[in-house]
Write a structure and sequence with these properties.
single chain; alpha+beta; Chalcone isomerase; 13 strands
């Protein structure tokens, strides 16, 4: 009789637990996998559909990423545009910048030209001081070519974006500036060229190779004793985009300091490094002479997990 009562009680508890679980699942729908998610930090690309075509948005500038052969077009909504023209360092809520990243390829009919070859990514930078408390009032939303959220960990990606944009506090943490197409102004005063008087913001420190993880040490040229290691926010907040974008900067530092330059996450699982080859001269794709450099970098998206290390050799401008 006692065993029967215990079994009945256990069965009742089991059914009750299942009921609670079912109610909980019903009350809190399962979040869709990030690969199909349309939102990042509460914003979706469709909220700003076709911003590059809209009459109430303004074309700001174009940038070219040498590391990924990507052309990037930046646009600003009317609120952001007015603040940008006023030289604001504190953008008002509602200001939005949108960026379209276009793959480029060689024009087979005119091989010295790189032409757009389809959208690869879209990026939004939205001024919302409440939602962006952790990133100094800016909210970042990254999307792939399908308009799906492109960050594996949205918090890490947001912090990494902010760490990069924090390099330009004098511009309100906005890299893009209106491009000038007035040739007479450019020739009359070269200082009017945007960024001609730019201030390097990335900090490096010389450290002993023995302090680096084995994965980095094993890739360095034999006999290397010290490297130039990136310090500050960039090193604290890394994700895949930073690993790729930093390589030209590392190459410049490696050539200047005549030693390898490295950016590494705090736990050493995500890194990018550039070493100067034997000084062999090479020809740049756009003309001119450069120097052969070697890059090696992790292929993972976020720190905290081991990933493969890729190698790349290329010609860098002196």
């Amino acid at each position: 009789m006692m065993a029967s009562k215990n079994f009945t009680a256990f069965a009742g508890l089991f059914v009750f637990t299942l009921a609670l679980f079912a109610l909980s699942a019903y009350a809190q729908p399962v979040k869709p996998p990030l690969a199909t998610a349309e939102h990042m930090n509460g914003f979706a690309l469709k909220d700003y559909a076709n911003f590059w075509k809209r009459a109430d948005w303004h074309f700001v500038t174009v940038r070219y990423r040498r590391d990924s052969n990507e052309m990037r077009l930046t646009y600003a909504n009317d609120i952001a545009w007015k603040a940008l023209l006023a030289g604001s360092k504190d953008y008002p809520d509602g200001a939005v910048f949108g960026k379209v990243g276009l793959l480029t390829q060689e024009d087979p009919s005119f091989t010295s030209s790189a032409v757009p070859a389809g959208a690869r990514r879209y990026q939004l930078m939205i001024r919302d001081k409440e939602k962006g408390k952790e990133t100094n009032g800016w909210v970042y939303a990254l999307f792939d070519g399908r308009g799906k959220a492109a960050a594996e960990d949205q918090d890490i990606a947001s912090q990494a974006c902010w760490a990069c944009h924090a390099l330009v506090p004098e511009r309100g943490e906005v890299f893009s500036q209106p491009m000038s197409m007035d040739i007479s102004d450019t020739f009359a005063d070269p200082a009017k060229i945007p960024f001609a008087q730019g201030i390097p913001r990335i900090e490096f420190e010389t450290v002993k190779v023995s302090t680096l993880p084995e994965k980095i040490r094993s890739k360095l040229p034999s006999g290397t004793e010290t490297v130039r290691l990136v310090q500050g926010k960039l090193a604290l907040h890394l994700f895949r985009g930073t690993i790729d974008e930093i390589r030209p900067t590392l190459a410049k530092e490696a050539l200047r300091a005549k030693m390898p330059a490295v950016l590494m996450s705090k736990d050493g699982t995500l890194f990018s490094a550039v070493t100067v080859d034997d000084g062999t001269p090479c020809g740049l794709s756009g003309g001119g002479k450069g120097v052969n450099v070697k890059a090696f970098y992790t292929t993972g998206m976020m720190p905290g997990k081991d990933s493969l290390v890729a190698d790349h050799q290329y010609c860098e401008k002196k």
